[in-house]
Specification:
This protein has twelve helices and no strands. The protein has 221 residues and is mainly α. The longest helix is centred in the first third of the chain and has 17 residues.
Length: 221
């Protein structure tokens, strides 16, 4: 039980998993078998065939829930007819995704770095190499944006380059760059060039479509 607990904790399972592991270990299962059952397409069915007591079955199923939450991408992969990744490959992918995003300046607190979001990438079979390509494309799009628009966004709204990159990668989970703010910044930049002072974010100002908002490069498929 101690060995299985140590293995699962190393995978990042932080909930109370001890009771479930103990229940399975008391029925003669070693760490390898427990992990194999948890990573199977239908662990609940495998556990139901072990003739566990009521308390043991409850604890074991709670362990299954904790596992499936941690490796949510594998649950979705199986549902989509894809093979699940091994825990080692799954965690390696997570680390690769995070490394690419960190190099682009995306903070660890970003929703793009969450276990749930990274699981969605693996559920869609998006490789770390593809994530790197998309991050590079988003970074390039921001860097090639009108410098005066970027200046307006940063000075008026405190929107950083990493936030803009995050928004291009997936506007549904990144810190918000709302349409009105970007449109206002675009109008403000054009007005500044003409030497006209306007109030940014004026809801009555004419709105125009913008390159940043029309060039989303969502990571999820």
């Amino acid at each position: 039980a101690q060995q299985a607990t140590a293995i699962l904790q190393s995978y990042g399972l932080t909930s109370d998993i001890g009771a479930g592991i103990t229940a399975l270990a008391q029925n003669g299962l070693d760490a390898t078998t427990i992990t194999t059952i948890l990573d199977s397409p239908n662990p609940a069915s495998a556990i139901s065939g072990l003739n566990l007591t009521g308390t043991q079955a409850t604890a074991a199923n709670q362990l299954v829930t904790a596992w499936q939450t941690r490796f949510s991408g594998n649950v979705a992969r199986v549902a989509a007819g894809l093979n699940p990744l091994s825990p080692a490959d799954y965690i390696a992918n997570e680390q690769s995704y995070k490394q690419v995003m960190t190099m682009a300046g995306i903070p660890s607190s970003s929703p793009l770095m969450s276990t749930d979001y990274l699981g969605k990438l693996m559920a869609s079979d998006v490789s770390p190499a593809e994530v790197q390509q998309r991050v590079a494309a988003a970074t390039s799009a921001v860097q090639n944006e009108d410098p005066m628009v970027i200046q307006q966004l940063q000075s008026q709204y405190g929107i950083s380059q990493s936030t803009m990159i995050s928004h291009l990668l997936d506007p549904t989970v990144s810190a918000p760059i709302v349409q009105q703010e970007y449109n206002a910044a675009t109008i403000g930049a054009e007005a500044a060039r003409a030497g006209v002072a306007i109030t940014l974010g004026n809801p009555n100002a004419d709105r125009k479509s913008t390159r940043l908002n029309s060039s989303h490069i969502p990571l999820s498929r």
